[in-house]
Amino acid sequence: MPDTEHNPAGNNLFARARQCLDCADPETKCKLTDLAVDDLNAGRLDLRNMDQPQPIAAPGRPPRPELIAPRDLPRRRPGSVAGRAALLHAVVHIEFNAINLAWDAVYRFRDMPEAFYRDWARVAREEAYHFHLLCERLAALGYAYGDFPAHDGLWEMACRTAHDPLVRMALVPRVLEARGLDVTPDMIRRLEQAGDVEVVRVLEIILRDEIGHVEIGTRWYRYLCEQRNIEPDATFEALVVEYMPGQVKTPFHYAARQQAGFNAAEMASLERLAATKR
Prior knowledge:
Layout: H1 13-22, H2 26-41, H3 81-108, H4 114-140, H5 153-160, H6 165-193, H7 197-228, H8 232-243, H9 254-259, H10 264-277
Helix pairs in contact: 1-2, 1-3, 2-4, 3-4, 4-7, 5-6, 6-7, 6-8, 8-10
């Protein structure tokens, strides 16, 4: 019997995306994500736009972690078990937010090609898988998601870009999530030095998958620019300056960004913006 017959959200993709977004329990959110993607892949979900997306002030999430300003977060040093757990917790929190961001892209932006929804549903599933892997490693250190404070920067940018898929694709996958491509190699190096080979293995999986996620953002950003007859390179720089002034940081993982679709002009503009900040 199809899973849709047991699901109160029914067989509409956008209703199922909203169900995943609203779910506050992380384990249930991941299970609902898997079920929704299974149903989508099996052809059991209707992709017709039956209503209009509603604003979401905050997605479903557990009462912890406490959300504080990024500047108030303590430094995370992997030299101790608690330090490694805090570092790992920060990545767990990013992956949990990434599940919501992927489903929000599905739910919010209607009248896109079917491939857009299949891409972002797949991203949601992969982010849920990452979340599960990281929670296992966090538990092995004696901690759980929610044990450390975190910030809400990813979702705040989702709210600021909710009006336009072009702006969302430019800034969330290609700036905020792409930052993960830059910082993960150093995180892997530090955890290797600390001897945590299991977490290193997980981070290598995540880095591989995240290159693909950023590439999806690149592809749909350029699609939307082409549809609107907009020059993509200058527009990307202008959007970063408008929405994220002073937030571009080095170093860049050039090889990973190239795989994710960044071209030489875009990298040059990011280098200029990072230099301006200094």
